[in-house]
Amino acid sequence: MHIESCENSTVAPTSDQRGFLNMPEFEFMLVVEGADPQSDEVANALYEAGCSDALIHSCDGIDYLDFAREAESLEEAVLSAVADIESVDGLKVVRLADAGLVSMANIAERTGRTREIVRLLVAGERGPGGFPPPVTDPRARYRLWRAIEVEQWVRTVANDEYEAHEDHVRVAINAGLELRHHSSHMTDDRKADLLALVGL
Questions:
Q1: Which of 11, 32, 40, 137 has its CA 20 to 30 A from that of 126?
Q2: Residue ranges of E strands in 1-61
Q3: CA distance linking residue 88 with residue 103, whole number of Å
Q4: Cα 26 to chain center, whole Å?
Q5: Angstrom distance (rounded) from CA 100 to CA 167
Q6: The pTM is what?
Q7: Collapsing DSSP states into helix, strand and coil, what is residue 183?
Q8: Is 56 helix (H, G, I), strand (E, B) or coil?
Q9: Burial of 78 (0-12, 13-18, 19+ CB in 10 A)
Q10: Rounded CA gap, 7 and 43, in Å?
């Protein structure tokens, strides 16, 4: 397991626990809260819990684990990682980082275009127009889009190829994690109403 921060990084011993299974590898980041995952005690506990396939990061007060996990599916990879992390006392997974969101750079990579071409598509200066609006402030320099909406636009409007990253799955898993996190601060009555809203 590797431990990294904004300022510096140290390397802990690693082992390959899943490589022999010859399964596809899935990359994702899980934001955590609670105990300090960079402390020797917690980092060692995470390693023993099965998180040797993750990098531990801490930046601007946010702790997260960057996984490259082999599993039969993305769901299995993420949910098993959540279970491994939360088996360590004091650690809780808050959300799946950037779930279902893409930047211009991401869109360019997935569509095989340059960032300038993507910028022109976004601005309506090239292509059929109607590019999906960003979910962040449209005036901001750094904007993000819902990957699902971009994929649909590229495939149906632009009639082109788009490299899918199982974004529906990522959004659904993250919604569950955030629902769990935020509902813990609600009264039982409000929690019941919220669960009814999502059909649970």
A1: 137
A2: 2-5, 9-11, 25-34, 54-59
A3: 33
A4: 11
A5: 5
A6: 0.72
A7: helix
A8: strand
A9: buried
A10: 18
Tokens of 144: 């993000």
183 or 66: whose pLDDT is higher?
A: 66
- In degrees to the nearest 10, what's the CA dihedral of 11, 17, 21, 22? 10
Q: Is the dihedral of CA 34, 36, 41, 43 positive or negative?
A: positive
Q: How far apart are CA 148 and CA 165, in angstroms?
A: 10
Count CA within 13 A, CB hemisphere, residue 86.
13
Structure tokens at 99: 């779930």
118: amino acid identity, one letter? V
User: Can you give the residue ranges of every domain in the chain?
Assistant: 2-97, 101-157
Q: Which amino acid is at 92?
A: K
Beta-ladder partners of 145: 102
Dihedral sign for Cα atoms in the order 3, 108, 103, 171: negative
149-199 pLDDT, tens per residue?
A: 898 898 888 777 776 678 888 888 998 898 888 887 888 888 788 778 877
